[in-house]
TrEMBL record:
Protein's name according to its UniProt entry: Phospholipase
Pfam family, one: Exo_endo_phos
CDD domains with a match to the protein in the record: nSMase (cd09078)
MF-aspect GO terms: sphingomyelin phosphodiesterase activity
Keyword Electron transport: no
High-level lineage: Bacteria, Bacillati, Actinomycetota, Actinomycetes, Kitasatosporales
Length: 391
């Protein structure tokens, strides 16, 4: 380098015996002198040995007291899973609920996100233009956003790769899943599930998952957002939809593990797995016992759906006015309260992420004296947690 050459020239020009350059020249002159005769006593080390010894001394010498070696910092991010109930009008169900008051509810949903201010937001059921407007409204805070899962089957959007069984049929809608992030997205991958129940409305959607690799203060963090197969009383038996969910979780695990190179992956979204076993004889009220479906789902995912013991409900037909709309005329779900939304992880090769401050977000403060069905953004409550991953 030019600066180094100038520095050597300055030392050489000075010619001062005590300068580093003068000492180096003296060592070099000694090295170039004739070798000693046999029998002569040699007391001076050759220059290369002296330099090696000096280097070893520097390595082995203890650091001065108070000197700290910087450790690699474990990335910490806050994550929100939020089903915003912005259904497409192509489905018959959206003509009765889910498609009503969409403008007001999208505005209310954006307010909830701003109030909580998470680092990463996984949106489910963000199917329509109202949800798109909400995403644009949040873009200043969340400039890094994935495309909608299943909106395009290849060649469009900002996906790094496409996988799965994506349909281009005009009668099949997108999957409604997207990820918003404050941190840069280095990769974004799309999976449309191959497993689907043809007797449910989910079959008319490119349901799947988004997977992103974030750069969190320079460290890689993998996050997957998804929305699994739902149960439908008028469609396929619950035993069938439960089987499809497990197959989808296995797909997610294999795909995400391959893309991440085996690193742990944070998984967030509406997984439609009931955390509590419901009592069919009592308006499907929660029994308090953890459903066996959770352990099965953990096994299929290769990780944990619920690493924290969060007792609040994310789907509450008792306390959420929009959720109450889903009850049938017989009141079969009059007491239905459960947890369907999760922030968990795929373990991969470990170590597993750690989770703190997990809680269900309240809609308190959103009621401003108007129609609660418009002021409440969704039939689901959002879920938030802080996640620490290995550096």
């Amino acid at each position: 380098m030019k600066t180094s050459e100038q520095g050597l020239d300055r030392h050489a020009a000075a010619g001062t015996p005590g300068t580093p350059w003068a000492r180096f020249r003296a060592r070099r002159a000694a090295a170039e002198s004739p070798p000693p005769e046999i029998g002569d006593q040699v007391t001076t080390k050759t220059p290369h040995i002296a330099l090696a010894a000096a280097g070893a001394a520097l390595i082995l010498s203890p650091l001065p007291a108070g000197t700290a070696i910087a450790a690699e910092k474990a990335p910490v991010i806050s994550v929100m899973a939020f089903n915003v109930e912005q259904l497409p009008s192509i489905t018959a169900v959206a003509r009765t609920w889910g498609s009503d008051r969409r403008t007001e509810r999208a505005t209310a949903a954006a307010e909830v996100v701003r109030r909580e201010n998470p680092d990463v937001v996984v949106l489910d059921e963000a199917f329509n233009k109202y949800a798109q407007a909400m995403r644009e409204d949040l873009r200043k805070t969340y400039p890094h956003q994935s495309s909608l899962v299943g909106e395009h089957c290849g060649g469009k959007g900002n996906w790094t790769s496409y996988a799965g069984n994506c349909s281009n049929s005009p009668f099949v809608v997108n999957g409604g899943v997207t990820i918003l992030s404050k941190y840069p997205v280095l990769e974004s991958h799309q999976l449309v599930y191959r497993s689907a129940d043809s007797k449910t409305s989910d079959y008319k959607s490119n349901k799947g998952a988004a997977l992103v690799r974030l750069s969190v203060d320079g460290a890689p963090v993998w996050v997957a957002g998804t929305h699994l197969q739902a149960d439908e009383e008028s469609g396929s038996p619950i035993a069938n939809t439960r089987k499809v969910r497990l197959e989808q979780l296995r797909e997610l695990r294999a795909w995400a593990s391959e893309k991440s190179g085996g690193r742990p992956v944070i998984v967030a979204g509406d997984l439609n797995v009931e955390y509590y076993a419901p009592d069919a004889g009592d308006g499907r009220a929660p029994t308090g016992a953890v459903s066996g479906d959770v352990a099965e789902a953990d096994k299929a995912l290769g990780g944990k759906l619920a690493p924290q013991n969060i007792t609040q409900y994310t789907y509450d037909m008792v306390g959420n006015a929009r959720a109450k709309l889903r009850d049938d005329a017989k009141g079969s779900y009059a007491k239905y309260r459960n947890r369907l939304d999760y922030i968990g992880y795929i373990n991969g090769n470990g170590p597993a992420p750690t989770f703190t401050d997990g809680r269900v977000v309240s809609y308190d403060g959103l009621h401003k004296g108007g129609d609660p069905l418009a002021e409440i953004p969704s039939d689901h409550q959002p879920l938030v947690a802080r996640v620490t991953t290995a550096p």
